From TrEMBL:
Transmembrane segments: none annotated. The lineage of its organism: Bacteria, Bacillati, Bacillota, Clostridia, Halanaerobiales. NCBIfam families: HDIG. Residues 3-191 form the HD-GYP domain. It comes from Iocasia fonsfrigidae. This is HD domain-containing protein.
Length: 191
């Protein structure tokens, strides 16, 4: 069992908290989940791994509920302090969930979805395969969704083609090259 029955109640409650935080997070969490499942299936992962990715993707930005909407919805660039606060959301989210959920693989997705393949991510600066596979998957679809939707700091989203180019340009630096390539192939073939 991925999540014990009595823990599911708490997880559902956390999902409601995300949905109520702001409109972007509500849609983002759902889209990231759908894309992450699609990519995990494309990569041939097991049903168990796919279920872990499903919950991890739905909850990946849980920590943002502790960040003020004034920062999350700020139209311009973030100042250093605001960015430092944003960079802590993987830690906030893990802290909120860890006492309620004894599934390390799901918690790892929340902790590590902003790590980068080259070690320049946040908050732990893990690199390469130190970053769990599921977090590497969520990191790519998370970036793709952020690029292709309207954001407070960028009114005109990237086209799908531009977003895929951006992901391929960052394959091997920000993203795991193999997974990034597989994702772009899958999206291109769907269109
Ligand atoms: Fe995030």
């Amino acid at each position: 069992m991925i999540i014990r029955k009595r823990q599911l109640f708490k997880v559902r409650k956390m999902l409601t908290v995300i949905k109520n935080k702001n409109e972007y997070l509500r849609g983002h969490s759902k889209r990231v989940c759908q894309l992450a499942i699609m990519l995990a299936e494309h990569l041939g992962l097991s049903q168990r791994e796919i279920r872990i990715i499903k919950y991890g993707a739905l909850l990946h930005d849980l920590g943002k509920v502790q960040v003020d909407n004034l920062i999350l919805n700020k139209p311009g660039c973030l100042n250093d302090l605001e960015f430092e606060i944003i960079k802590r959301h993987p830690i906030f989210g893990t802290e909120m969930l860890q006492e309620h959920l004894n599934n390390k693989e799901i918690l790892d997705i929340i902790s590590y979805h902003h790590e980068r393949w080259d070690g320049n991510g946040y908050p732990y600066k893990l690199r390469g395969e130190e970053i769990p596979l599921a977090a590497r998957i969520v990191s790519i679809v998370d970036a793709f969704d952020a690029m292709t939707t309207v954001r407070p700091y960028r009114k005109v989203p990237f086209t799908i083609k531009e977003a895929l180019e951006e992901i391929l340009n960052n394959a091997g630096s920000q993203f795991d090259r193999e997974i990034a390539t597989a994702f772009c192939q899958k999206i291109a073939e769907k269109r």
